[in-house]
């Protein structure tokens, strides 16, 4: 008689950890709840580090050593600001929260396979211990294996309004060691920051998605960086990007300029773009998008600038040359009639998108 054995299968779910979620820094209740994860990370620290924390007034009674589950090893997306918020909430009586910040950073970076790194502005509610942005990424740069870690990054976001050049050392290190990024979302404000981020963009081998935000003047090196990615770039988002007086580009003989270089000119070199978001277009620029050689453009979103124009006329002209690949379009513009909308829809239908 055959014997039958039975066993129970337990399913273990590993959820995205709080360090990778984007939160509203003013939602204190949610931040306080997620800040409890700090206890688990402290449990994974070695004895020497735990002694240092105790000597500096940190209460370890709720974080016994040798945690059952190794959470740090499963941290793949790291929004560094979240760590600042959680530490500020859960260690209010700690003498120097920067010590705990440094040790948890080291723990995550030594054990995990990070592929997404995000640096944002620090909320005014949490600036007592981290007034200098170098306090945030300083521990990363000092790690022995920091260069190996940067090579793994696939996504990098910088939303720091750095007017004091505090982030320069981070960008310089990333430029030297980080060349496989697929997605970049950058906020630019000062000359040195733009130059360093332009180098970081140019250094990439397979950049597919690029978003550049804010109004900057006179930084044509950024354009060369965008040009350098024309073979791999699929998604380009430009927000309030105006570059004037590009005398350096006049001398190249590659492009001819008048007195300004608009965001649309960049697109002449990136016909493989599949998703495009543009702001403050004039009618001629919007029409030129449809007349360009965008054989792979699937999603197009734009709004118009302050110039007055006929929304009906623009919509009718766009209808004459709708890209065959286009699947969705979002137009934030003035009022238009049902007739012009019908003409555009018919043009899209004739292209096979109806």
Automatic annotation (TrEMBL):
It comes from the Eukaryota. This is 6695_t:CDS:1. It comes from Diversispora eburnea. The lineage of its organism: Eukaryota, Fungi, Fungi incertae sedis, Mucoromycota, Glomeromycotina.
């Amino acid at each position: 008689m055959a014997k039958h054995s039975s066993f129970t299968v337990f399913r273990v779910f590993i959820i995205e950890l709080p360090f990778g979620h984007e939160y509203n820094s003013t939602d204190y209740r949610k931040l306080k709840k997620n800040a409890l994860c700090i206890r688990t990370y402290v449990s994974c620290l070695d004895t020497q580090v735990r002694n240092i924390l105790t000597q500096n007034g940190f209460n370890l009674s709720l974080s016994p050593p040798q945690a059952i589950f190794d959470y740090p090893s499963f941290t793949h997306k790291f929004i560094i600001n979240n760590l600042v918020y959680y530490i500020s909430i859960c260690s209010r009586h700690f003498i120097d929260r920067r010590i705990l910040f440094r040790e948890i950073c080291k723990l995550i970076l030594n054990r995990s396979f990070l592929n997404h790194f995000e640096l944002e502005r620090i909320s005014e509610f949490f600036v007592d211990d981290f007034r200098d942005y170098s306090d945030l990424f300083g521990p990363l740069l000092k790690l022995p294996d920091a260069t190996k870690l940067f090579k793994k990054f696939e996504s990098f976001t910088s939303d720091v309004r750095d007017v004091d050049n505090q982030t320069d050392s981070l960008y310089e290190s990333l430029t030297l060691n980080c060349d496989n990024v697929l997605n970049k979302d950058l906020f630019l404000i000062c000359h040195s920051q733009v130059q360093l981020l332009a180098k970081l963009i140019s250094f990439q081998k397979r950049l597919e998605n690029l978003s550049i935000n804010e109004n900057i003047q006179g930084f044509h090196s950024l354009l060369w960086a965008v040009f350098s990615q024309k073979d791999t770039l699929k998604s380009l988002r430009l927000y309030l990007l105006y570059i004037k007086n590009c005398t350096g580009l006049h001398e190249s003989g590659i492009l001819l300029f008048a007195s300004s270089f608009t965001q649309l000119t960049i697109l002449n070199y990136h016909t493989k773009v599949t998703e495009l978001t543009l702001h403050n277009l004039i009618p001629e620029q919007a029409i030129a998008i449809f007349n360009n050689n965008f054989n792979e453009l699937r999603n197009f979103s734009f709004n118009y600038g302050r110039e007055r124009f006929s929304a009906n006329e623009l919509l009718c002209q766009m209808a004459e040359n709708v890209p065959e690949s286009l699947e969705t379009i979002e137009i934030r513009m003035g009022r238009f009639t049902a007739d012009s909308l019908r003409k555009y829809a018919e043009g899209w239908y004739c292209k096979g998108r109806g």
